[in-house]
Amino acid sequence: MHGLKLFLCFLLLQPLHATELLLLSLTPPVDYQDEYNDYHPVKMVRQVLKYYPEPYAIESVSLNRAFVVLRKTPGSCTPVVRKSAARLQEFLFSSAFIIAPDIRLLVKTGSPWSARLQRMQDRNGRISLESLMQLPHPPVLATEDGRSYGDKLDQLLTLLREVQSVYVRTAKTARYGDLLPMLQKDFVDATLEFVEALPAEEKEKFTAFRLTEAADYSLAYFACANDAQSAQIMQQLDQAIMAFRLSPEFRQMLLSPFPETERPKVWQAWLQLNWQQEQPSAVAQPHLW
């Protein structure tokens, strides 16, 4: 009997089950299990999860759906997202683990807008989206509801939503580049996308222009539900991210999407952006996917 009491006391001291992370991702779960999958965001998330100590489950959902679930499901997170002023009001954010080049304005290679935008670039090789959309006959621009393009662009796009030439897609987003078929088939003239997130064969079909309203680089994070259970998970995610960031493979993996000549500049941007995130003003002026 005494032994039974000790056994029961031992059980009471143990957690009934580990807190399980529910990871809501655009990418199907099988892609994370495939070590040969070379898609950069998948590789980076997979590497973080190798350092994550607790059970987790991955569910494939659209980005819009992921944020809906985060608002009502403790223990849920979604990877590879940008910070924005609005999102910071609702969700918890991990440490950064990806740096991305600025979002670009994409048009179909060889289209009339491709040549026209070449002539409209300023001395720094950039286009002002605000000025472009104020033209008497602006391009038809496709955007996606629920995505963050960066605070400056988000504010501008909010104002432009009433403009007839801006098309806002509200359907479920399954992957970066979902609007490109519309662009390829000439249903729209332009869209906004991270070029580095696209397969090499897709990049050749489009011409990308840098925007004056977009920062040179931005960071990507895990966003999680804002509750006590998710806060515990966030601590473990941050520990996993920091372990990855301190690993020998991190720098090479972080910089691998960029041309060799650009990597020193990107690494300095990574250090600078992370330093800014640690400052008190970072909450008021977030930099990020």
TrEMBL record:
Superkingdom: Bacteria
Signal sequence annotation: 1-18
This protein's UniProt keywords: Signal
The protein, known as: TIGR02285 family protein
